[in-house]
Design brief:
EFTu-like_2; GTPase activity; Elongation Factor Tu (Ef-tu), domain 3; 8-stranded antiparallel beta sheet; elongation factor; 16 helices; 7-stranded mixed beta sheet
């Protein structure tokens, strides 16, 4: 059984993510939280490249968050584990993997822009994962900042009930603090290091504060039967009732508590932390994790947040650096000690835990153990991938892994120096270990090495990482499209004689071939038959003829592409008693079929992709026009809940650069998926 001390320890943990659009101020909020809680002693700035969580050189160069970074701090007797997530759409997979292991989140909005496209995307992702959220309207010191407009955009774009629990004191450059509407007190900050000061509500704001408190009470009473009963009986709601009901509404997702401030000016962070502790869940407040016994056994298993349960954890991030491998874990149940052996339920392999670390972005401190509810990093596992379940070997469980987004952009990647080819292959494999949304492969038809990802910036960052971390200078280009050549008009009775004599045994083969296109209903690319009678071509040579024909079809006469839709019939032939052989007939068939194809008529085919595009309804016309410009053929269009879905067939060659174009034309709100859809005639050049 769990002891009261253990329960209180787990109840004092908050595993939270910071979510927002690019440049809404996520990293600055995280930095101010770390400074305020004493985790760091000097405030860093994004524009100076001195923040704790943006520690990667590329993040500092670009001024954006690229990789989800975990940090830990203490506030009011609670352990707060924070994950600062990227805000750019190209790194949405990092957000998805982080949300899979978080219990709550702080959504940061720009007080001028309100809900921006990626804010909406990460909000929906949090909804899918069932992660409760509170909101922080940041940058109230900016010109044009408007809390009410931000609340309206939350209501209209995200559709929760935004419950503002604060009222700003001052506007834009005069913003100095907030009024706490629950306790009707003023919280102000000066420009120095004195921190937050508490005082009475300014006289000129007393009436507005009272009115907004009333609006808050009425909104809460409408959403909660217990609050409605108290409101009807007493005409007001107590602080205790408001706090308890706001927590319930947050956990259920029926409403979102909204606070405000300016992280850059260090104003509003203390009440934000207090709200995160008060309203967001501890590991004890979330349901027990569920899984199967193993890949082969789907017997349901579950683990509660209890150190006495068998150890259960999910690996959500891997840093496979050349200096060592760091695996980030969310511990759901049990206890992990240094030196323990755990089972990777995904692969069936056992791993030894050499060290357990408390993570502070790129810095770490060693721990003796980790308990249910912790987010830690471990050294030791050599093969665990993001999404792997690590558990006690005696009590296996397989948790559902985060689903990686399908890549939408592909580039060709080659080492500038031939000597670095093997190093490039190793670097690409390591990148795929760290980020499952990156897919390296070698095209079997073109021979090109390609890298696929979620956007052009995603791939740009990956290629730069190869150069910086692995010392491989690369050449990046547009990938080749694998065309096909289809026979549309054949030849009959095509004669080919192969004779070669260079001393000793020679080569002799005589063939007569009918080469015709296959019927459209035929599902095969190549059909070979023989109508030779009387043993004019022995059976073993017939097999060699078929092999030679298949070799010939690998490179067509139009451009060296594979040839499809061909029926070859061997109708006659002749042999030589000494010089005929399987090699001679295979060579004759290869050369003869190539000549026959040149004598016939072929058509160049290009690959098609079935594209499914999801966009806001107001962007539908723009998307349809762009698809038409890319020679796309629209198959279906559906509209539901102000969102449109378009399905179209588009030549694969026209999709290069489409991800960037779609995002720019839909303000980042458009997404698309693709899958192969066969081939169609290419336009004549």
């Amino acid at each position: 059984m769990r002891t009261d001390t253990t329960s209180s320890t787990i109840a004092a943990v908050r595993n939270l993510g910071i979510l927002a659009h690019v440049d809404a101020g996520k990293t600055t909020v995280t930095e101010r939280i770390l400074y305020l809680t004493g985790a760091i002693h000097k405030r860093g700035e994004v524009h100076d490249g001195t923040t704790v969580t943006d520690f990667d050189p590329q993040e500092r160069d670009r001024g954006i968050t690229i990789f989800a970074a975990a940090v830990s701090c203490a506030w009011a007797g609670h352990r707060v584990n924070l994950i600062d997530t990227p805000g750019h759409v190209d790194f949405a997979d990092e957000v998805e993997r982080s949300l899979r292991v978080l219990d709550g989140a702080i959504a940061v909005f720009d007080a001028v822009a309100g809900v921006e496209p990626q804010s909406e995307s990460v909000w929906r992702a949090a909804e899918r994962h069932g992660v409760p959220r509170i909101a922080f309207v940041n940058k109230l010191d900016r010109s044009g900042a408007d809390l009410d407009a931000a609340l309206a955009s939350i209501r209209e774009r995200l559709h929760p009930h935004p419950l503002a629990v604060q009222l700003p004191i001052g506007a834009e450059g005069e913003f100095v603090g907030v009024i706490d509407l629950l306790r009707l007190r003023a919280l102000t900050w000066s420009g120095g290091e004195e921190g937050m000061r508490e005082g009475p509500v300014p006289v000129h704001l007393a009436a507005e504060a009272a009115a907004r408190r009333r609006v808050l009470e009425e909104a809460v009473a409408e959403l909660h039967p217990g609050a409605l009963e108290e409101f009807c009986a007493d005409g007001t709601l107590s602080i205790a009732t408001l706090t308890a009901v706001l927590r319930e509404l947050t956990l259920s997702g029926e409403a979102v508590v909204v606070l405000c401030g300016s992280a850059y000016r260090n104003r509003g962070i203390e009440p934000l932390l207090d709200a995160a502790i008060a309203y967001l869940p501890s590991p004890l407040d979330v349901p027990a994790v569920r899984g199967a016994a193993s890949l082969a056994d789907d017997t349901p298993q579950q683990r509660a947040a209890d150190p006495e349960q068998p150890f259960t954890a999910l690996a959500f991030k891997v840093n496979a650096a050349p200096t060592g491998r760091l695996t980030y874990l969310r511990v759901y149940a049990g206890r992990l000690e240094k030196g323990d052996t755990v089972l990777d339920a995904t692969t069936g392999r056992t791993e030894r835990i050499a060290r357990i670390l408390r993570v502070q972005a790129d810095r770490h401190s060693e721990l003796r153990h980790a308990l249910a509810g912790d987010i830690v990093a471990v050294i030791g596992p050599k093969a665990a991938r993001p999404g792997a379940t690590l558990c006690a070997p005696a009590a296996p469980i397989l948790l559902e892994a985060p689903v990686s987004a399908e890549p939408v952009v592909t580039v060709a990647v080659e080492a500038r120096r031939a000597a670095d080819t093997d190093k490039l292959a190793q670097a690409l494999a390591r990148l795929a270990e760290e980020d499952p949304s990156l897919r390296p492969r070698t095209d079997p038809e073109t021979g090109q090495r390609t890298l696929s990802g979620l956007g052009e910036l995603h791939l740009e960052v990956a290629v730069e990482k190869i150069r910086r971390d692995h010392g491989v200078d690369t050449v990046v280009g547009r990938p080749q499209v694998a065309h096909r050549e289809r026979l549309v008009e054949g030849v009959s009775g095509f004669v080919h004689r192969h004779v070669k004599q260079e001393g000793g045994a020679g080569q002799f083969a005589h063939l007569v071939l009918d080469v015709q296109p296959l019927e459209d209903s035929c599902e095969e690319d190549f059909v070979f038959t023989s109508t030779v009678t009387g043993g004019r071509v022995p059976r073993e040579y017939v097999q060699a003829v078929e092999e030679g024909c298949r070799e010939a079809l690998s490179t067509g006469p139009l451009g060296g592409h594979p040839v499809t839709g061909v029926r070859v019939t061997l109708t006659d032939g002749a042999t030589h008693s000494k010089d005929s052989s399987e090699l001679a007939f295979r060579t004759a068939a290869r050369q003869g079929l190539r000549e026959a194809l040149r004598a016939g008529r072929l058509q160049l085919l290009e690959p098609l992709a079935q594209v499914t595009v999801s966009v806001p309804e107001d962007a539908l016309g723009t998307v349809l026009g762009d698809l038409a410009a890319r020679r796309g053929s629209v198959q279906a269009t559906a509209i539901a809940q102000a969102a449109a879905t378009v399905t179209a067939l588009v030549p694969l060659a026209e999709l290069f650069g489409y991800a960037t174009r779609l995002r720019s034309r839909t303000q980042g709100r458009g997404t698309f998926t693709t899958r192969p859809a066969g081939y169609a005639p290419a336009p004549m050049v």
